[in-house]
Amino acid sequence: MKRLFEKERARAVKEFPKQKRDEVFGESDIADLPEPVQKYFRVCGYLGKPKIYNADVIWKESFIKLSPEKEWMPLETRQFNSVIEPVRIAYMKALSMPLQVRDIYRDGQGHMYGKLFNLIPVVNAKGKETSQSALITLFTEIFIYPYL
């Protein structure tokens, strides 16, 4: 699973390598956005910083709930995002059981794939609902990356 994540991440970095250090995130980039969003970018200190197009994220704390009846399970989570073309690739490894999952949104499609013991497929979700869910996840995390 981790190799799949790394392979897909490398592909995305190769396709979207440009991080233009000379482009600075400024007031003109947020002028047409709603006031609460403008305030968010100001308060977070993004103005005056280089624009970010790709990001690697290592979540210090992340959790998953496998069903409503189950408890939250801690995860090790690594993630890559690109805003040039909306791409989100996440690798999650359960800390309390031998479960690994790769979750991706790319080219308008979502796909969650997971294995137990890195051998037995237990999740292979794709289709309209998975794509919608993956896009919503991408949108909820997009404010982490200052770009426009």
Question: Please, could you describe this protein's structure?
Answer:
The chain is an alpha+beta fold. The protein has two domains: 106 residues, no CATH class; 34 residues, no CATH class. The chain contains four helices and six strands. Strands 1-2-3-4-5-6 form a six-stranded antiparallel β-sheet, sandwiched between helices. It is globular. The chain starts with a helix and ends in a 7-residue tail after the last helix.
**Strand arrangement in the largest pleated sheet:** 1-2-3-4-5-6
How many domain regions? 2
Beta-strand residue fraction? 35-45%
| Measured distance between first and last alpha carbons | 32 Å
Contiguous runs where pLDDT drops below 50 for at least 5 residues: none
Return the string of H and E elements. Answer: HHHEEEEEEH
Number of helices: 4
Beta-strand segment tally: 6
The average pLDDT value, as a whole number, equals 89
Largest sheet entry:
6 strands, antiparallel
Class of secondary structure makeup: alpha+beta
Supply Rg. Answer: 17 Å
Which word captures the global form?
Answer: globular
Q: What percent of residues adopt helix (DSSP H or I)?
A: 25-40%
